[in-house]
Amino acid sequence: MILVALLSGGDYDTNGVTGFGVRIACEAARAGFGKSLCRISRTDAAGYTKWRERFNLEVQTNESKHFKSRHESLKLPKTFPKLDILEYYTNPVISDAHGVAKLREELTGEGEIDIVGLRQFVAEAFGWKYKVGAKKLIRGLAPVFLVHKLRLRGNRREIGYNDPALTDMNEIELVRSICGKRAHFATDALPEIRVIFHPNDIVGLDIEAEEDVTHDCRQDGLAPLLEDDAAKAYVANNTTARSASPRKWVRLAYDPMQPERVWIAQIMVKVGVPLKVEDYEESLRNSK
């Protein structure tokens, strides 16, 4: 992998060597050129020269059939490899055990999320004001907050897990029920569980404290486009199939107080609401 990074570009030198793409670099690495390069002493200039000559010969003639074809125009420059870049790869600077422990203490993912601060920020930065803005924030954050809270419950399994009744009460605050499972190609067949939850129960934003605003309809009779997270449904004034009544578009506004369904990685759901998962899997077994 070091040779691939040096030839085609990597973290420490994104340019790489002109003409050498990932495919050729991988072929060279499979041929063992990377291992032989790393074995050369940093002070062995003659060794690097000999290595370059052998590499260029193989690339241009494909004498040993390491490559799919010859590349007569390709040639490594005399400055290859850049020893400082090679050193970064072979001897990376990493934190010692004490430094890692200190970082672990300072960085925590379990702090309280300032939802009020987030609400103020999106109102000022994005113009998400009034109740419609609050609902937009809830809709975007609720699935993420749910996964976050499921993970936190997994980190605190010792709290209340000996009491099934208390555990069930705690779980229903996050997930009301489970309604499906899948392994979809869109997520590389990652096992997922579909859960039902109430968005604002997860986010905890006081919708009623938000100022309401009324938008007038457009001249064409359609609902305004300000609330881009609202679903629009095409309905008729009269449900009779033969009715000649004019049809119109009406807006079905997103309601964060209504249950919502979302697919979440199975491992996260099992960690956060194990009793819910057990009950669901048992219901599947009993239905057979």
Automatic annotation (TrEMBL):
Q: Which residues cross the membrane?
A: none
Gene Ontology molecular function terms on file: crossover junction DNA endonuclease activity
InterPro entries linked: 5-3_exonuclease_C_sf, GEN1_C, Yen1_H3TH
Task: Report which superkingdom the organism of origin falls in.
Answer: Eukaryota
Q: Where is the Holliday junction resolvase Gen1 C-terminal domain?
A: 174-283
Question: What Pfam families does its record include?
Answer: GEN1_C
- The name on file for this protein is Holliday junction resolvase Gen1 C-terminal domain-containing protein
